[in-house]
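Quick one, T. Sequence first:
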Amino acid sequence: MRCLIVEDDFVSRSILKELLAQYFECDIAVNGEEAITAFTMAHDSKKPYDLICLDIMMPVLDGQQALVKIREHEKKLNIPQGLESKIIMTTALDDPKSVFKSLYQGGATSYLVKPIGKTKLLRELRTFGLLS
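Structure tokens:
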């Protein structure tokens, strides 16, 4: 399985990669623009990401904007509902507005508040069938 970690903070990015590397082939992007490019390239090469961990607060293009663009691209590709990439929004923001925007307006699969521990992350991955 493949995972894209989108995180501008080196420490957060390293922690996520360490947690996920034993389950996924992990790629890295440091902003939303790079995430969209990586997502598009993965689909073009017929190796889409099963999981995208997407930070909200990033330079160039933030996670909320990248989420919308990724979901729009999936619709253009006619990816059936339920077969889209699972997208976990990862953020230090724990306010209801960000949660609502990510999950209900943006189409995120899940929302985790940092710091993200192994137990919490693996529970989320099991919830949507990426781990048994």
